[in-house]
UniProtKB/TrEMBL annotation:
Keywords: ATP-binding, Cytoplasm, Kinase, Nucleotide-binding, Nucleus, Pyrimidine biosynthesis, Transferase. This is UMP-CMP kinase isoform X2. It comes from the Eukaryota. PROSITE patterns: ADENYLATE_KINASE. Transmembrane segments: none annotated. Belongs to the adenylate kinase family.
Amino acid sequence: MIFHLLSRLSAKVPSVVYRAALIMKPQVVFVLGGPGAGKGTQCTRIVENYSYTHLSAGDLLRAERSREASEFGQLIDSYIKDGKIVPVEITINLLRKAMEETMEMDEKKFRFLIDGFPRNEDNLQGWTTVMEGKANVKFVLFFDCTSEVCIDRCLERGKSSGRTDDNRASLEKSLAVCTCDCDPILGLF
Ligand SMILES: Nc1ncnc2c1ncn2[C@@H]1O[C@H](COP(=O)(O)OP(=O)(O)OP(=O)(O)O)[C@@H](O)[C@H]1O
Ligand SMILES: O=c1ccn([C@@H]2O[C@H](COP(=O)(O)O)[C@@H](O)[C@H]2O)c(=O)[nH]1
């Protein structure tokens, strides 16, 4: 109905307005859980069966770290090795850009699984500041997994992943941050 109406109006309405009216507001599911809890694995399976796009905050940070011209490469590298949370402005910018690029390429791709973000209340505050009114967060999918299982899985993954944080020291730091800082986020949804 809306499409039909817009088609009829399109001759009179500037094309940018026409396109904007057709583009949906992003629908977001936050996917949380410790390192190795299985977030990435389950997101891949969801994408195979439902019309979602998987955006891993950690993957976006690792890609930015590898980008030659990146001004944040070294900073991201040291935060990841230390299992610490990268300043939220950097992560939000990467997420926002990835969502925009996805929707620009295909406006039907407006459902996103955001994996590994927000990790603490500061992250959530950053999201709200930048994305309030621009995206709808539907719910949080939380993978509850013991620290021992998380560590075992990531150490196994580390044999081939090449990830600088798939080692016991980084994992223990990351799990401590996750346990202390992720819990309040779950209470908010
Ligand atoms: N249900 C499961 N049972 C056994 N192994 C699993 C299960 N889910 C995932 N794995 C394995 O555990 C490892 C970590 O899984 P995955 O990368 O999906 O976790 P993650 O939560 O995305 O981790 P990270 O946040 O560190 O990226 C992978 O090697 C994966 O194959
Ligand atoms: O929102 C985020 C997501 C990730 N990080 C940093 O990256 C590593 C790895 O994250 P994974 O989700 O396990 O891929 C994490 O330990 C943080 O250092 C972040 O800062 N903010």
